[in-house]
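Record 1 of the preview.
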Amino acid sequence: MSGISDLPFRLLAHRLGAGLVVSEMVASRQLVEQRADILKRAKGRGLSPFAVQLAGREAHWMAEAARIAEGIGADLIDINMGCPAKQVTRGLSGSALMRNLDHAAELIEAVVSAVTVPVTLKMRMGWDHSSLNAPALAKRAEEIGVQMITVHGRTRCQFFNGHADWSFIAKVKDTVSIPVIANGDVETPADAARILSQSNADGLMIGRGAQGEPWLLGRVAEYLRSGQDKGAPPLAEQAQIVQEHYDAILTLYGKAQGVRTARKHLGWYVGKTVQNEQSAAEWRNRLCRENDDRKVREHLATFYEEQLEVAA
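->
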């Protein structure tokens, strides 16, 4: 998730039990050109296993970016053919590649040939409901050498509207022999069990559901192992996790940029904690309009003190 699953978020999710964390989508050409901000997105200090997700439309840039990603420690390379954002698809990257499977196959082959680590592929069901070609793309990818497929249960033209079609993912699973990972609308451990049941997938990926709830991935993993949902961490522990996340953001980006970068995360934490919409809006405004990093930290402490009093 571009701008969201950065290094601080991935480190936190990994510590809280995520089995595999994937970098933000990285533009292949920009990675090759060694832009400092792009390298920040790609590097996975202390993470193992660690995946770099690449996007692009030109085979030579994708291949070279994959080599760089392997060189900085990636345990696997994930090719993004699922991003629906207009700024990505206008450049014929992301899910736009599902409109031309020959071009998609050329890019996949370039990446597979360039590295020694496993290559995986992220896709949607297709561009729209008149071209549900995920099974065909998955089969071609498997033949080229891709070792795992992740399918988001929507078309590109759906963006994130409606509900993900988990049962469609089973069609991809029936087409290939490599592992298939189901993705889309998993927000609870019960959702995780249902998506696996309906898709017959080998595993699941959580994206937006972890916004403001990085402990969800570990919670789901434990539920699938034991059948028991231990719930979210106690509020006092959540406060410590959020503070850890905030401090890590400031360390990576510096105070000025870090305060701005943290705002969306703090807004999600508030939204997942406070049920009253007016109160949540007031806290989001207080946290997200403050430019002083110390005052943000003070507001966070006050916020969780109030929530603990309400819960007592």
